[in-house]
Amino acid sequence: MRVLVVGAGATGGYFGARLAEIGRDVTFLVRPARAEKLAARGLVVKSPLGDLHIERPRTITADGLKAGEGAFDLVVLSCKAYDLDAAIADMAPAVTEGTVVLPILNGLRHLDALDAAFGPARVLGGSCAIISTVGPADEIRHMSELCSITYGERDGGRSERVQAIDAVMQGAKFQAPLSEKVLLEMWEKWVFLATLAGSTTLMRAAIGDILAAPGGHALITGLHEECLAIAAANGHAPREKVAAQARTTLTAEGSPMTASMLRDILGGGRIEADHIVGDLAARGHAAKPGSTYPLLALVYTGLKAYEAKRAREAQ
Ligand SMILES: NC(=O)C1=CN([C@@H]2O[C@H](COP(=O)(O)OP(=O)(O)OC[C@H]3O[C@@H](n4cnc5c(N)ncnc54)[C@H](OP(=O)(O)O)[C@@H]3O)[C@@H](O)[C@H]2O)C=CC1
Ligand SMILES: CC(C)(CO)C(=O)C(=O)O
């Protein structure tokens, strides 16, 4: 199976490298600057599951794809949401009749754009769980043992094509559960992530530090309740066990956990405010006109203020 991983950043770099490590046919679609760095230094992963250095990762740029690289069987999309439109245009030549697209972005709105570009039949549901970042020497820093890609047909079932993907993923140093409830799992992940990203970015602190502050517990659990209510209003109420596990993780005293969005803010980078928080609130309002989500609204204001400051300072 020919696999194209779009993006070689914190997530795509990790999962793509782990597939290449076990001999899978992996090519990274990268932009020219990343292509140069990968050619010079290789793809380096620092991980508690074992470091890895792929000296010559196979890469291609959008121009190379246009020039004709042939079709890919699986395209794993790992860009940030703000790069989605350009990534779709760049990867388009790789998507032909039999290609399956597996996005691992947080949130859900990207599915609409992918459906519009490639047709819903080609697009799987998917998400990833990992705590990773790109370090100062462009190495992929995997910061805990957590690493998985959950994927599947959006209407459930174990089609031949997802079973073929299962065969490709098994054996790599990450979990890859093939899900028959992938949309529900995407919503469950989104509810968890929006609470984690919302609280840690608003407070610019890790979960344990927020819990140590007066009102911290109420902030996190209140935000979680709002996100749960939005998922339920949209017909995707997280399963009780999953919601309870999320709450335990989000209220674990002393927890150093933060969201990738906080790491992006602390590094002065762009963030997926509209994709992860704005879209969730919008879906709440759309499903239940007149409903209010005050904590989520506060989080969104904070993120948009960060974006405004960042834009002003860049002028
Ligand atoms: N990091 C984490 O811990 C987690 C992240 N996520 C989610 O995963 C998604 C990806 O995040 P993450 O991997 O951290 O982001 P990164 O910014 O680390 O990586 C994204 C990569 O996509 C590349 N890219 C963007 N546009 C294109 C394009 N047109 N062609 C080729 N490459 C492109 C970027 O390239 P370039 O190098 O040129 O900028 C970058 O390397 C997000 O939705 C995030 O919320 C989910 C779970 C955990
Ligand atoms: C929930 C978590 C921490 C793990 O995948 C994540 O998605 C993120 O930080 O963006």
From TrEMBL:
Pfam families: ApbA, ApbA_C
EC number: 1.1.1.169
Annotated catalysed reactions: (R)-pantoate + NADP(+) = 2-dehydropantoate + NADPH + H(+)
Gene Ontology cellular component list: cytoplasm
Molecular-function annotations in GO: 2-dehydropantoate 2-reductase activity
Residue ranges annotated for the Ketopantoate reductase N-terminal domain, each copy included: 3-155
UniProt keyword annotation of Zinc present: no
InterPro entries recorded: 6-PGluconate_DH-like_C_sf, 6PGD_dom2, ApbA, KPA_reductase, KPR-Related, KPR_N, NAD(P)-bd_dom_sf
Keyword set, alphabetical order: NADP, Oxidoreductase, Pantothenate biosynthesis
TM segment ranges: none
Any single biological process term in GO: pantothenate biosynthetic process
Function: Catalyzes the NADPH-dependent reduction of ketopantoate into pantoic acid.
Family membership noted in the UniProt record: Belongs to the ketopantoate reductase family.
Protein name: 2-dehydropantoate 2-reductase
Lineage: Bacteria, Pseudomonadati, Pseudomonadota, Alphaproteobacteria, Hyphomicrobiales
